[in-house]
Amino acid sequence: MTTTLVERRLQHTSLWPALGVVALVVSLVASVFVGAANITVWDALTGGLTEAHRVYLVEARLPRTAAAALAGASLAIAGLLMQLLTRNRFVEPSTAGTVESAGLGLVVVAIIAPGAPIVAKMLVAMVFALAGTALFLACIRRVPVSDSFVVPLIGIMLGSVVGAVAAFLALSRDLLQMLNSWMLADFSAVLAGRYELLWLVAVLGVLAYIAADRFTVAGLGEDVSTGLGLDHKTVVAAGMAIVAAVAAVVVVTVGALPLLGLVVPNVVSRLVGDDARRGLPLVALLGAVTVLVCDMVGRSLPGLFAGGAPGAGEVPVGTIVGILGGAVFLAMMLRGVRNA
Question: pLDDT by residue (tens digit) across 51-63?
Answer without folding.
Answer: 888 888 888 889 9
